[in-house]
Write a structure and sequence with these properties.
single chain; about 260 residues; alpha/beta; Rossmann fold; 10 strands
Length: about 260
């Protein structure tokens, strides 16, 4: 890997810890799209330059529908990030994806309604960006290797020839959670996991040509599954806090492996 490589980490739900880095500093970055959600924390992991951005602000004060996704991706691009690893909590829409499983989607369904999802709205031209493979297979493969080395369960809990490793994430507007009717509808769409933050983040990263991969921690079963408590913010926060160190370990191991590329 070249010495000028930088990896952007977009932290969600407590995973924007600057203590992941050595010799870290904080920097304000101004973009044509406004200010990003937080100052960018810069430092190194295994000798690789890393930039951490808190998606919802340092105090988790920005709801998902009000995040300035354009500014966030633009800031990481302006800092020269070559890859983006984005952490997020997700609800499981499948019985075999259990709470605390790590999941790495390869497809998305954008069910948001009022977010700016392109950089080209300010450029006076129409650009149709290919989006058939929106997430980075290179990063998914490295994350999978890192999970195996660390002994973490990832993607589907039960592996067999009859179950595809493909995973589709659906992003809803929020900040409210789904109704039971919506949750079952999303299952019918073919979605496997659900959150409120990946779109348009992944779309904008693709427009900038930055390989992007979501690292998702399953925290709940949304509200579709009988005999399971419907999702609450307290449930998500408790499970993410409990498992944050695992995701941090995964980030460090993944960046170590990227440093050897």
């Amino acid at each position: 890997m070249t010495s000028n490589c930088k990896i952007g980490i977009i932290g969600g739900s407590g995973l924007d810890d600057p203590n992941l880095l050595t010799n870290f500093t904080e920097q304000d970055v101004f973009t044509p799209y406004g200010n990003p959600s937080s100052k960018i924390t810069q430092g190194k992991i295994s000798g690789v330059e890393v930039c951490i951005l808190a998606r919802h602000g340092k105090k988790h004060e920005i709801p998902p529908s009000q995040v300035n996704y354009q500014a966030n991706i633009s800031a990481l691009d302006r800092l020269g990030c070559n890859y983006i690893l984005a952490t997020t909590a997700v609800g499981s829409l499948r019985a075999y994806i259990h709470p605390e499983n790590l999941v790495f989607p390869n497809q998305f369904i954008d069910f948001t309604k009022q977010r700016l999802s392109t950089f080209f709205n300010l450029e006076g031209k129409v650009v149709h960006t290919p989006m058939s493979e929106p997430f980075s297979k290179e990063l998914r493969d490295i994350l999978s290797e890192a999970c195996e080395e660390l002994g973490f369960k990832y993607n589907r809990e039960i592996k067999s020839k009859d179950i595809s490793e493909d995973l589709t994430l659906i992003t809803i507007e929020g900040p409210r959670f789904s109704t039971r009717a919506e949750s079952n509808m999303f299952r019918g769409f073919g979605a496997d996991i659900i959150n409120m933050s990946t779109c348009p983040e992944v779309i904008l990263a693709n427009e900038k040509g930055i390989p992007y991969q979501t690292i998702a921690m399953s925290t709940d079963y949304d509200c579709w599954k009988e005999n399971e408590e419907p999702v609450t913010w307290e449930m998500i926060k408790t499970r993410m806090d409990k498992n944050a160190n695992r995701v941090k370990e995964l980030l460090v191991r993944t960046i170590e492996k990227l440093s050897l590329k």
